[in-house]
Amino acid sequence: MSGAPWYFDCDTGIDDALTLGLLVAEGADVKGIGSVSGNLAAAGGARNTLDLLAVMGRTDVPVAVGAHDPIDGVFGGGAAFVHGENGIGGVELPRVGEPVAESAAEMLVRLAHEHEGALRVLAVGPLTNLALALELEPRLPSLVADVVIMGGAAAVPGNVTAVAEANIINDPIAAQAVFAAEWPVTMVGLDVTMEARFEEAHRQRLEAGGESAKALAAMLGVYFDFYTAILGRPSCALHDPLAAAIALGTLEPTLAPLVPIEVDTTDGPGRGQTIVDRRDRYIGYPARPGLRHRAVLEIPEGFGDALLASLLRLP
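RE: above sequence
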């Protein structure tokens, strides 16, 4: 389904930048991109997205600024310690273009109507824009083909708290609204994204590529610095690009059977946990009608090599 029209929702830090490169390299028909506060503020994410699109030769893709604050709170300031102060590892890109006037939520609703039944949604940041779009257009789930998100964890620890992954805990109310809506969601969580890696050899090969590849390689220095303490060597996890590859169909993962997924929105220690109900694994557990979500549980080896090959095709 990579030939389908896409709406891409992101908080353009470093792995979002790699994801954008993958979408461009694979020729995804991206009709619009919305930014959301996560790795950095939504306005800064939109700026990074526009400038990266220009480097990659895709100034035709409109970018909308999305929600600055989560549904029930205030933006916490981002993750400069992971992505650098400007979200892209301190790399300075030429400033090209400006965001469109509509909000990201308005863009999503408009594109869903323009491409009714065909639009696919890839969301790799907090899900605030999607939740706001659901408020604007309650019929949105019937207009969209499917949603693929990077976020959550089915059977592994979180990376912000013991149970919560960053994108989900940044706006649990929005995440719960997205999972509660009647559209199919594929959750690409920490179960697999922590296993998808770029190594130093990948970064060095990227550095020898074209202008886009060189810019991405330069961003990876800060990202590698952060992950070295976690992974034990200069390398990084490929959270968002993995979700994009699965959405595009360039990587065939192992999916859990259709499952209910909910998000803990309480103020206790479980806040932000994605609760993936896997009780169907037991023999004789009653069938449950109306299930529509899937969680990715396993991926084949070699995703870093495949991502590198795609990114080296960029201009």
